[in-house]
Every structure is written in C-alpha cells, then in structure tokens.
Amino acid sequence: MTLAPERPTTAKGIDPRLRVESDAPRPQRPALKKSGRPNPAAHLTPEQIEGIGRELDALRAEVMDSRGARDAAYIRKVIKAQRYIEMGSRAALLFSGVKVKGVRPLWWVGTAGLSVAKILENMEIGHNVMHGQWDWMRDPKIHSTAWEWDNASPSSQWKHSHNEIHHTFTNVLGRDNDLGYGILRVDEDQRWTPFYLFQPIWHVGNALLFEYSIAAYDLELGAYMAKKDRMSEEQKAEFKNNADEVVAKIKRQATRDYVVHPALAAVTGSARTTLTANLVANLVRNVWTNTVIICGHFPPGIATFEKTSIDGETRGEWYLRQMLGSGNISGTKAMHVMTGNLSHQIEHHLFPDMPSNRYAEIAPRIRDLMERHDLPYVTGSLWKQAGSVYWKVVELSLPNKVEGRRRRDIVKLELTKAWRKKKRARRA
Amino acid sequence: MTAPSIDRATPDRGATRPRLGAHAPGPLGGLARGARKVAEALATPLVPADYLDLFDPMRAGADLRGRIVEVRPETADAATVVIRPGRGWRGHVPGQYIRIGIEIDGVRHWRAYSLTHRADGSPAAGIPAGCIAITTKAIPDGKVSSHLVRHAAPGTLVMLDQATGDFTLTSPAPAKVLFLTAGSGITPVMGMLRNHLPELTDVAHVHCAPTEGDVIFRHELTGHHDSGRIALTLNLDDVHGVLDLARLDGMVPDWRERETWLCGPTPLLDAAEKHWANAGVPDRLHVERFRPSVVEPGEGGTVTFARTGRVVDADGSTAILDAGEESGVVMPSGCRMGICFGCVVPMRSGAIRDLRTGEVTVHESDEPLPVQTCVNAVAGACEIDL
Known about the structure:
The structure holds 2 protein chains of 2 kinds. Helices cover 57% and strands 0% of the residues of chain A.
C-alpha cells in the first residue's frame, strides 16, 4: 500500500544527494568554466537552485502518484504490438525469397517490420523497463531486474554503464564515458589528440556497429586493453566473466538472426534473403539508435561539467546539471515512440524512472521552468540535431582554435610528438 | 482484521510447468526436446512462453492464470468471486486456500483466499462446473478485498497459484466435529461443508458475525441447520455481544470431545488456543491463522537481513543500503541516489520510507516486493531477502 506522500519532518541526517536543501551553504557558480567558456547557470543563486529542486521534486511526486491503470495498459500495449510486429515480420521473411514481377515484396515488408520491432524493443521497451520505469506495476516480467533486451550487450552490464555511470555523472568530463564513448571528441573541453583526426570514420563505424560497440563499451574493453598489465587477478577474472557473458549473448542473438531463421526459411528457398533481411534490420536499428542517442547530449548548446564541479552536489544541483546536459528532439507522437521517448531526453534525465509515456505531458512545464530561470532548453528536429552533431564530429576532429597559432601547426606538432613517443617506447 | 494474508511460508511456486519432452524417452522425446531447443533459439532473449501467452494465457504449461466469470454479492460487503482457472489447475483439498494476483490501478497485488467450490469439479451453490470460487469480505482499508467485492469485473484476467494449506479435514472424517468460525473465517469451513457434509455425521457449528445481515452464506447454513445436518449456533455481536468462550459450554456442551476447526480474527484464535489448552485438549484444535496487516509504519526501526541472519537497528534517516553495509552485509549497489535501480532487492515484509519524498510503502502480501535500498529507510521494521 502506498500512502500519501508526506515530507519527512527532519531532513537533517539524510544524505544531501537525496534532498534539495544542503547543510552547508553552497558556493555561487563561477561565471566562466575552466576552459574559459561561459557557465550557463552562473546567474543562479544557490537558493534559486534549491527552488528549482523543490519544484522538480513536487512535479515528480505529482506524476508518480498518478501512475495507474492507464499507464500499465500503455506499456502492455506497446509490448504486445512489438511482439506481433516481430512475429508478423518473421513470418513474412519465411517467404522473402519469393519474387513477384522482379521484386521480393515480402523481403521489403519483413525487413521494415523487423527493423521497427527491434527499434521498439530496444528503445521504448527495453531501455525504459531497465530504468525501472515500470517496476511499480509489480509485474515480475516487466521489471528492471528481469528484462533481457534484443541487443548484444547483456542487460546487467548495460544497466551498470548506462543507469549508474551515465545517469549519475551525466556530461561530467572524465566521469561520464558516454561523452564520446571514449572514441569521439564531442566537446571543446575534451583534450584533443591525433586519434581524433579520423573521428568521422570512427563515428560512422560506431553507428553501423552500434550494438557491438555498446557491448564492448559496457564491458569496458578499451580500459581493459589499456590497463591489462596493471590489473589484479580479481579484476581480470571479473573481466573474463563479463566477457564470457557478452560472447554467450552475442552467440545466442546471432544464432537466432543468422542461423535459425534463415534455416527455417530454406524450405521456401528464402534462406539467403532472410539472412540479408536480419542483417539489414540490425543495421537499421544500429544507425537509428545511434542517431537518436547522439542527439541527447552532443548537439551545440548543451553544457558539460568539470569533475570538481560536482563535489558535494545536492539533488537540486544534480537536477540542474541534468537539464543543462541534455537536449530534446521535436517531432510527432510516432517519432517519440520510435525514439523510446528519448526525444524527451531532458525530462528523461531529470526523472529516469518516470514512465516514458508521461514525458510528453511534463515537457511544457519543464520548458517553462527553464525559461523562467533563463536556462537554455535545447531542442530541434532530428535532422537539425543529428546534422549538427555530424558537423561537430568533423569540426572537433581538429584541435580548438587558439589565438595566434594555426591549427595546422598544432596538428603537426602533436603528430611529431606522438611519433617520437612511439619510437622511444619501441626502443625501451 | 484486514486482508487475509496467511501467516505461513509461501508455498513453492513455478514448479508447475512440465517441459516439453523432458521425460519422454525414445525418438519421440528426442524430437520434442529438439523442437523445444529450436523454439528457445527463436525466442531469445525472451522465452517461447512470452509469445504463446499472447495467444492463450490460460493454456496448459503457462503460468497459472484465471478469468473472473462472476462476482456474486453474499452480504452488503462480501462477495463470491467465481473464476475459471487455466488448464494447469491441479485441484485442491477442501479447506485449502489459493493466492490471487490482481491488478488494481496498474499495480499487481497478491492475497490469499480460501476456496469454497466443489473439489470434484461438479457445480454447487451456483458455481458452474470447472470453476473455482473464493469469498471475500471488503474491509475498510483492504485494497484488494474492497476491489474484489466492489470493482472486479467479469472477464478480468488474474494470476493464480496452486492450492495449498493444511487446514483440511482428517481422513477418515472424525465422528464428531465442531466448526468455530467468525466473519470471513467461514470460507474454508464452507469449502469443507460443500464437499464433505455427506461423510460428516455429527457437526456442531458456532459462527460469529456483527449482525444477522453480515452472516456470509446465511441461507445455506440455516438450510443445513433446518434439515438437521448441522447444529448451527449464531453468535451475533449486536444481540449476544462478542463471543465469550466461557459460553461455549452452553452452546456445544461436548466441545472437548470434538475435533475442532477454527478460523477467525487473531484475538479469537489466541483466546481459543488458550481455552483448549486449559481444557487439556489442544490437539483437538485445528487453526487457520489469518494475519492482520503487519507493520504500523514508524520512524526508523529494525532491518532484518533474512539470509545472512543479521539484524540491524537503523534510524529514520539512514538508507537500508548504508545500514546493511555498515553491519557487513554484502549488498548490491549503484548510484546511491535512487536513479540506477542497481540496488534493488526483494523485501519480504515490513514498511519503508522513501528518503527523497517521505512516501511510505507498507508491504502487505507474502509476495516479495523488490525495493531500492539506497533511497529507502526502514519505517518500523522490515525484512530484506539478503
């Protein structure tokens, strides 16, 4: 039974990260960040930030208390629709090799349907269920602790890197690995190295192979490769366990898409076309999810934060960081569903465990709150936002412009340094 | 007395599903096992049942579910809920109960209720053949009982568990029986009467209710009394006052010689256990104990970590996660601010308070409730499954 909310009489003693009021007075935000770029929240006093926190707490309580049968029906409807679309598409693909007047109509229908089914499963269902948005229904099948999604990365590892690291440390340089996924430079405050010269290529490759790069990323494969020699036996064993889990998951996923379904379709001579359909559907899903996700935190106008800026952060300041560190995508209702409502990235980052079907209804109020406090509410069409990120990836592949120096010279100098370092390492 | 959650270990569940080809020997069994493997490979990361449930949630081999056929009023605040169970239903012994999981405002709640239908599947008391029936009384704060009596609609799908419980008649049936019931405590006994009355030769029944209008199954009981098949004594609070067991000698003089089945509110059970013990015949008494809602929410309290056997006192501002870690319990954790759901563990019972909002969650059913330990403090007492 859930009783009506009632604020605890004494906030003292409760971890400050769980409440908007702080025991010690909070410092005023500096006008400029370390990099010299303006701080978009510098004009807010600590009291105003507390006020924002209180307003958002009240808004959260209002929506969470009104969750009910309508919301439960919504997620069940989406899950049901997704499963029917998937089954229908898979059935169509059994005949994907059949030609009618030179085209294979069922290949096109099945591939489109399967792409949609995979996107729905990953975005509006999987991502959101794993956030605990539907835990309140107490349905053990639609629960953050039980859901396994149609993606290469095992749910448990995804929940750690995404829910815990990314959502806690959103856009904090050096803490939030999602900021460029370790392979992209998407913010001027990220240090430039020659590796980033080729980042347009890394970016496109990352988008095409997104489910596998996410799996490698959740596994922290890059960190393992870099620090392998310095790792303890325990750390190595943990990595190996996780790696085994990833390999087993990829094997199951690939067996389904590239072996069992094509084998069944062989009866109608559609094995090869079913294989290509699965391949294309996975690619479409990869590129789509990547496109949506890069619009969440990388477009221009979205703030990043320095490591030290989150010391002693209160819940109010955390809210502020989430608002400034996220950006939305405007569009139709269908578009919101296909993005898993990550088109409401700002609302999602403020309340990651709020049912996704409610983000649209609070969006105008969040926008109003931000505008009242003179904070930028970043939003735009998918084309505009994604386009701006692609341009940024190209632009930031070069080092920042510095007064009095040509970028060409900086690149040359860095390349020489890197080459020398490598040579020295080889000699030693 | 509030919602009848039964004070007894949760029966083991989930073992109801015989897997395709699991036991069949020979080539046919091999074929079935192969088909199962292919189905599992096709359904991954889900399981084949997730797809089959779309078409037939009541099929054999599915998680047990049922569909409400009818909700029939018994008194002003009690009703019988008739349910057609899924094909996996394995039947029951009269007197046993089932657990029902029903969605109210989108949230699934589990409660236990005694069964009152005929165990052989034949129709009785207006319950159609093949259906099961429970009877519940709406209590003011009882979310589930009120919903079942006042709002549940035919056609609703509910989750079910197989029948369980040892509040059943001994076999062969004893020669002399006393049924002592109060309020909705009549329900397991009605299950016995509808199934076993022909075998019972000497039945005394004492039933307590606030008023005559509150007597559930009144016509059926008085009918049996009038035809001489049971000797019914009604104790109505508004006429006779609350039952004083000292008066039992006047109602059923030979009660000490009778095998007695007792079901009712906790004070009556406690008093009766003492009374029977004092009379030197505690073995004659069989009790079905319904548990009133357990915890009265408070500020801080005791956290019990059931598996590690550790008991910790924590104040109202300490997260259960911190309390557990400080006492050396290995606990899953994550963001420590309520957003990542990495610390979720099942709570077996108790009450907790959300440190962010002050919201209190009281756990009322015996289905473990997953909770976030990093943002919840104990509110009175709670038991964590770690």
